[in-house]
Amino acid sequence: MVVIKPKISTYVSLGLILAVLFTGLILLLRDFAYKGSFGLWFYLIACSLITVVILMLLVKMLAGWRFITAGRDHIVVRLPLKRLTKAYPVSEILAWEEEVILANKKEFRQVTIAFEDRNSIAVSNHEHESYTELVNYLKKKAGKQMIKTKKA
Fold it and tell me: Looking at residue 151, what is its pLDDT?
């Protein structure tokens, strides 16, 4: 049984970045309220930009919070924030593909699995634990559905 879950270190680092952004937004709004050191246009643009970045990071973190279990000829996807659990037999896998990208002498890997009900999941080696075990499981159980790609 392979259990794929998010890496805590990824969420800690994203949380620290969010804390810095929130602090910057609060300090910027406080400066606007008390001092008004800059022009109104600066506050409007800066606060809007920081808010958009905060929202994008929050969506990224919340959308990626899922647990996947592979074993016994099934893949179970659990999304705790949506309170959704979906079990897929291995026979319902339409296709799966592993992408390998080399950047800055590091190898980034991502596997995307498409199911018959038009849902798909993506798991990466930098954001999830037990990535290699999942790929080995897919090669063993669903080797025929693998889409061969070249390294980028």
Answer: 57
